[in-house]
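Example 3.2
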Amino acid sequence: MARPLWMAAGVVLFILGWIGMVMPMMPGFVFLLGALFCFARGNPAWETRLLDHPTYGPALRDWRAHRRIARKSKYAALAFMALAGLLSAVFVGYPVAIVPISAMALVAAWIWTRPE
């Protein structure tokens, strides 16, 4: 039996994840992980469908089983964060851009320290 609140949260996170996959400067995979968490509690059939997805399923299964990030994914995430930091510095300006650049630097350090 599906639990409506978990399902609703999972659907919202799933939609945000797909938006994040095509929009720069918005994390997509993190939202898919959240959707997976919610679907595990709300509707296991949807959880299985997400884990069996041909593109994102292997990375989701790898994270769930071993808490690791593929080297190619790490490089892509770090490159896009560097680009986002550069764009923030150029278009937002010095005092304000320090906040997102600092946040991205912390996230980049966390990503870099995850096993491959």
